[in-house]
Amino acid sequence: STRIRVGIVGYGNLGRGVETAIGLNPDMELVGVFTRRDPQSVQTVGENTQAFTMSELDRDRDDIDVLILCGGSRSDLPEQSPAQAGRYNIVDSYDNHAHIPEHFAAVDAAAQTAGTTAVISTGWDPGLFSLNRVFGESIIPQGATYTFWGRGLSQGHSDAVRRVPGVAAGVQYTLPSETAIERVRAGENPELSTRERHTRECFVVLEEGADAEQVRTDIVTMPDYFEPYDTTVHFITAEELARDHQGMPHGGFVIRSGQTSGGTTSEGTKQVIEYSLALESNPEFTASVLVAYARAAARMNRAGDIGAKTVYDVAPGLLSPLSPEELRKSYL
Ligand code: NDP
């Protein structure tokens, strides 16, 4: 078969999403899932999906064209990406923005030595949002770029809410400020404070006998997490939490607004570019992006383009299952 053969490394939310996404891409096939846990204990989405131990990857398997790494950015990927790039083409979703340069260097060293191709830090942010920031900055050099996130479930802030005494369970959503977005869309190029950009909304199930007002105060005054924002706290039942808050929605906007002539005043010629995502499932969407970049990584490696890459280094046509000829006919 000439299909691109994919292995999934790490089987959490993202790993499950990749398994599902591969099923929607007929030019790709899944070799299996590789996990640090007992493979028997891992319940895959597909009945026929094979699960293997990580050590199965230690020998250079010749039935894998590219590995999609689905581990966590905090401690899994800094170790797994360089290790696997030493043997296989890889794609990862490393999202610790401040440490991407070090991650790139470590993966590049391994990939250059092994002759593999490694696309790091793809997904939507970093990933598709990064591309759109560069489009905006390059095309409209005079202007400002805005990224707004949400409405989205934030794992870190949800954990912080659950640590408040009196909270039995809860989730936190980040919302972009409508007023801020309207001002940006109107070409005002406003200076926005943290409080003006995003608001936070919590849905909390109280423990038996907990003081609701105390819980609310503890949440909204929490330094760093909530204090710099306008935060709303809703108290709900465990049933409502289970019914209405099980999804992992996310999304956001990248907006570039500037002037191409006439200076920066309101008399200037305004241009606004906007890119937006409204995602019912953050992991399923991120996984879909990773699968498209896995196709590109396999093709780049075949063409001899080795080393670490980011979304800035991958030509958009390589993401598509269509050939360059078909692309010119269909989409130009
Ligand atoms: P999870 O916590 O669901 O999974 C991370 C790893 O934990 C898995 O690879 C798995 O490794 C292990 N694991 C999963 N479930 C269990 C379990 N029940 N018990 C023990 N271990 C488990 O993380 P996500 O899949 O949600 O996210 C992964 C990363 O994706 C995030 O850290 C984030 O950095 C990145 N991301 C990037 C985005 C972007 O736009 N660039 C967007 C969204 C996420 P193993 O199978 O080896 O045990």
Question: How would you characterize the overall build of this protein?
Answer:
- The chain is 33% helix and 25% strand.
- It is built from 11 helices and 14 strands.
- It has helices at residues 13-22, 77-85, 100-114, 128-139, 155-162, 178-185, 194-197, 212-220, 238-244, 282-302, 324-330, and strands spanning 4-9, 28-35, 51-53, 66-69, 90-91, 117-119, 143-149, 152-153, 167-176, 198-206, 230-235, 250-259, 270-279, 307-309.
- The strands form 3 sheets. A 7-stranded parallel sheet has the order 3-2-1-4-5-6-14, sandwiched between helices. It has a 4-stranded mixed sheet with strand order 8-9-10-11.
- Helix 1 crosses helix 10 and helix 2 (77-85) packs parallel to helix 3 (100-114).
Describe the structure concisely for a colleague:
This protein has 332 residues and is of the alpha/beta class. Helix 1 packs across helix 10 and helix 2 packs parallel to helix 3.
